[in-house]
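Ticket #4471: structure output looks truncated?

Reporter: J.K.
Steps to reproduce: submitted the chain below (149 residues) through the standard prediction queue, then opened the result file.
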Amino acid sequence: MDQAQARTWLTTAVEEARAGLAEGGIPIGAALYGADGTLLGRGRNRRVQDDDPSTHAETAAFRNAGRQRSYRGTTMVTTLSPCWYCSGLVRQFGIQRVVIGEAVTFHGGHDWLAGHGVEIVLLDDPECVGMMRDFIRERPELWHEDIRE
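Returned output as attached by the reporter:
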């Protein structure tokens, strides 16, 4: 995948992460793009805001995309390496590519996804790293509650 396109798509996920942080939540955002580059859905981690532990950024973007006849050629863009729950969603529905803003603060299931044929584009984006480092420093109790480490 073209790095410039990946970075452009990442801006949508970053906007969602910033919105989540402004709401008092965990700053993780995601977006699902179609094979033709159409934005299908976007979302943010709303576990705190909705008191729902299953509302991760990737699941929110997926749900907001609505039912698709096929996920062939789709790309999930996320500010943070996907956890096992969200990695399972990608694998279950055959999402073919995951663009990841960063995996410095959390190394999720993206190696497992790559081992199952999912294309992984890891951007090591400094804005994403900084946003999560700041959040973890300022709200460690929320981070550890969500990530369970």
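Triage note (M.O.): checked the attachment and the full token line is present. Helices lie at 3-22, 47-50, 57-65, 84-93, 110-115, 126-138, 140-147.
Status: closed, working as intended.
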